[in-house]
Every structure is written in structure tokens, then in C-alpha cells.
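Morning. Coffee machine broken again, so started the prediction first thing and wrote up yesterday's gels while waiting. Chain of 116 residues, entered below exactly as on the submission form.
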Amino acid sequence: MSSRLSLMVASVALAFAASTAFAAPQASTSSPPAKNSQQQRMTDCNKQATGKTGDDRKAFMSSCLKGEAPAAPAKQTQQQKMTACNADPQAKTLKGDARKAFMSNCLKGDAAPAAH
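Came back before lunch.
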């Protein structure tokens, strides 16, 4: 009797294995699904957003995904202006009132340095 039971269990296992083999999709022969337009836009926007971080990236991605033109660059903060003006070679050579005048004009966004 035990050999009959073993034979029955083996038959059920074999039938189950055969049915799942035929039901399994052929993943190796199918190509990946095509991207829809939103997925393609996301891929393109991600490529364009390289180098952007934080709020700049969020704002860029939002406008890019909506199909809007790129937003104008954000205004520099006061700290960014100070860093840029201090990095100017002319600022490094000036001293006293001439430096103050140069920095004032630079921080205002004036292109021409102040006369000393």
C-alpha cells in the first residue's frame, strides 16, 4: 500500500510540475515593455537634471515633467553673492575704502568696480 501512496504522490507532483512549466511566461524571449510618454519624459528630465540638487532639482523636475520651458535660474542669496565677490581677483588686491566700494558695487550687481 505504501508503494501505491508513493506512486500517487509522485504522479501528483509530476502533474503539478508539468502544469506550472506550461503556464510560466517566456521571459527570456520577450523584449522589455515600451515606455509610455510620461516614463520617457521622466528619463529625459532626469538626464537634464544631473548636477542639480535639493529645491533646484525639485523645481526643475516639476517644470520639465509638465513640459514647461526651463525656469530662469534662481537669484543668488546674499551669502552666494559674498562668496562670488570675494573670489574676484580684484577684491583680493584692494584694501580699505576701495575694497568697501568694490564689494558694495559687486553685491548690488553692478559690473563696474568703484573708482578709488
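Residues 112-116 have pLDDT under 50 and may be disordered. Going to sketch it on the whiteboard this afternoon.
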